[in-house]
Amino acid sequence: MVLPVNPPIEPMLATLTPRIPDGDKLLFEPKWDGYRCLVFRDDKEIFLQSRAGKPFNQAFPEIVTELLDVLPHRVVLDGELVVDVANRLSFDMLAERAQAGGAQAAALAAEAPARYMAFDMLALEEHDLMGVPGKDRRQALNTFVTSSERMHVTAFTRNPVIAREWFTLLEGAGLDGVIGKPANGPYTPNKRSMYKFKHSRTADCVVAGLRWHVNTTPGTSVGSLMLGLYDDGGVLHHVGVVGAFSASHRQELARRLDPLITDGERHHPWLGPESQDGRRLPGAMKVTRWRHEELAWVPLRRELVVEVTYEHTDGDAPVRFRHNAQFVRWRPDREPSSCTYEQLEQPTGYDLGAVLRGDIPQ
Predict the structure, then answer these.
(1) Cβ atoms of residues 226 and 208 within 8 Å
(2) Burial of residue 133 (number of CB atoms within 10 Å: 0-12, 13-18, 19+)
(3) Phi-psi region of 278 (alpha: psi -120 to 50; beta: other; left: phi over 0)
(4) Per residue in 213-226, is it b (16+ CB within 10 Å) or e — as a string?
(5) Which pLDDT tens digit goes with each residue over 110-129?
(6) Which residues are catalytic?
(7) Which of 56, 102, 263, 305 is the most buried (most CB within 10 A)?
(8) CATH placement of domain 13-199
(9) Predicted structure pTM score
(10) 8-state DSSP, 10
(11) CA distance 91 to 85
């Protein structure tokens, strides 16, 4: 493969920013929150590169086939892989897809085919476009790449009023926010030259378990706290974890939580055979049809409540936090039984198909 821009390329990154600014210095795009994927095509050869520089070809064979059919013969693109199920983006299925290969990947490709969302062009034919202003790279992308069944050119706007409308509307289709890209800036690999505007909310959750920090003696340093919420029937579901603590905080947590360790409490709702009440249990986010290992965890008596921030929920009801939550504070004023799903805000549904077609406010 010989192109003006060759793999591996570290993708341009974004800095989390609280508000969408006024002015026309940014190109705004929907934030897909899939798996970042750079595409390199040289005639009959295609390489799908992950953010970490690893190949995605085996995991997403249908995307390789699609891009060979629709892309210019010599081109380099930046974009994201997503999977939608029942007109909603499914991060769970995307993660499962990324772990598969061979016959497993082919079976999943037939069951839940991925899509490629293109949002930048780094090279075309003999031309290296990385030093070209963002608005000109976008014009080249729109001119030379046409959306197809599984490959889509992401919508964009330079109007911050429209971008704010997207921020609200598109969450209902499972999107994660809005990206702002310098209209006059070059493509800068591995630099946070873009801006991301993401949803952030808070929830009070029951601390129902913990995992010890890796490479430490069990009992001395907490890796993550396991969070639970009750449904309308009083069933406690595992909704995610909160981590990213400092070393001193991890050790303090180990001391604080030691009295709550149940040592195999028989009545812990997440222990024993899986019940028939549909509760979400620990390990459900790690175990798939192709992976069967679970991360070890320690059950706790359900006495503590913690406030966390989260960005998005995912999965079928009962939902969970799509990504790790962030610690805010302890809530000694809250009873664990009061931590229910009712506090989670659910965005108004929006047609994912309209977003894929670019049929959204402009």
Answers:
(1) yes
(2) middle
(3) left
(4) beeeeeeebbbbbb
(5) 999 999 999 999 999 999 99
(6) 31
(7) 56
(8) 3.30.470.30
(9) 0.82
(10) P
(11) 10
